């Protein structure tokens, strides 16, 4: 009888744990190289950031791109080609809505052929503003970034092939319901106001140097933001992005900073 009671209690406990795990859910984060990430929320929504899936650093690019059949939102930090990437194709295929500043949203429709039907006022905002999306599954705040903001015009655009103004570049502070608070820096230098971004669970930080912070300044950015987990990005796609995760990690270690998570292209980490 006693054994039976213990067994029942154990099964009840396991059931309770399973139900709680389901209720709490988990958030999965996949890196594709350069600055491209996929976030799948506990509620099953899919977000892409700067989706250059077929970048030269990703040996599985075409396969990964084909596997993206359900995407709810595409967040774009700025208009450079290594961030715009495959966004138009993905939006046409999946109906993914574009989340970005008003200037870049307009430029994306006019000059990159982003489907206008997948854009709109409720998807846009500017620095300091926070927008709630997907029925509260995520909120997105636009964070400044110190970088450029032009966009190269796609074939078939209404303008001759050239560069157009595409607003100021940004980073994103993303709050996932029942999930992590994520700071994607975009392409940027270190700036002191990173200290004011807020509580950060996961920081996606550019380390490649030349066009953004290199390892040294990126490590200082991590010291400033104090995230629980740090994922390096924007390195190694070409030789000129010469900052390496090894250099970055060794600098972090000197400051006794833990939590660097190195993701290879196509690799996923689960945040519980
Ligand atoms: Zn870039």
Structure description:
With 272 residues, the protein is α/β, with parallel strands linked by helices. The protein has one domain (25-271): Ribonuclease Z/Hydroxyacylglutathione hydrolase-like (Metallo-beta-lactamase, Chain A). It contains 7 helices and 14 strands. A hairpin with a 5-residue loop joins strand 2 (37-40) and strand 3 (46-49). Helix 6 (215-225) crosses helix 7 (245-254). The longest helix is centred in the first third of the chain and has 23 residues, at 2-24. The chain is globular and about 50 Å long. The protein binds zinc ion (ZN).
Structure summary:
With 272 residues, the chain is an alpha/beta fold. The protein has seven helices and 14 strands.
Topology of helices and strands:
Blueprint: H1 2-24, E1 27-31, E2 37-40, E3 46-49, H2 61-67, E4 73-75, H3 81-84, H4 87-94, E5 97-99, H5 102-111, E6 130-133, E7 138-144, E8 150-152, E9 163-165, E10 170-176, E11 181-184, E12 202-206, H6 215-225, E13 229-233, H7 245-254, E14 268-271
Parallel strand pairs: 3-4, 4-5, 11-12, 12-13
Antiparallel strand pairs: 1-2, 1-14, 2-3, 6-7, 7-10, 8-9, 10-11
Helix pairs in contact: 6-7
The protein binds zinc ion (ZN).
């Amino acid at each position: 009888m006693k054994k039976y009671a213990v067994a029942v209690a154990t099964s009840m406990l396991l059931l309770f744990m399973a139900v709680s795990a389901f209720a709490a859910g988990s958030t999965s984060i996949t890196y594709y190289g350069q600055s491209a990430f996929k976030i799948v929320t506990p509620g099953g929504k899919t977000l892409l950031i700067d989706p250059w899936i077929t970048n030269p650093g990703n040996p599985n690019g075409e396969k990964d791109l084909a596997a993206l059949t359900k995407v709810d939102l595409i967040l774009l930090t700025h208009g450079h080609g290594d961030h715009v990437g495959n966004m138009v194709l993905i939006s046409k295929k999946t109906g993914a809505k574009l989340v970005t500043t008003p200037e870049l949203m307009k430029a994306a429709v006019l000059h990159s052929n982003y489907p206008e039907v997948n854009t709109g006022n409720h998807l846009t905002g500017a620095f300091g503003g926070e927008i709630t999306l997907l029925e509260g599954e995520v909120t997105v705040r636009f964070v400044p970034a110190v970088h450029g903001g032009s966009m190269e015009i796609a074939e078939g655009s209404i303008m001759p092939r050239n560069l157009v103004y595409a607003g100021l570049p940004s980073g994103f502070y993303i709050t996932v319901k029942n999930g992590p608070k994520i700071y994607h820096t975009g392409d940027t230098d270190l700036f002191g106001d990173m200290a004011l971004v807020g509580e950060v669970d996961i920081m996606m930080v550019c380390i490649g140097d030349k066009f953004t912070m290199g390892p040294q300044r990126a490590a200082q950015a991590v010291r400033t933001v104090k995230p629980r987990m740090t994922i390096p990005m924007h390195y190694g796609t070409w030789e000129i992005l010469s900052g390496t995760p090894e250099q970055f990690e060794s600098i972090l270690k000197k400051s006794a900073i833990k939590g660097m998570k190195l993701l290879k292209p196509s690799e996923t980490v689960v945040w519980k």
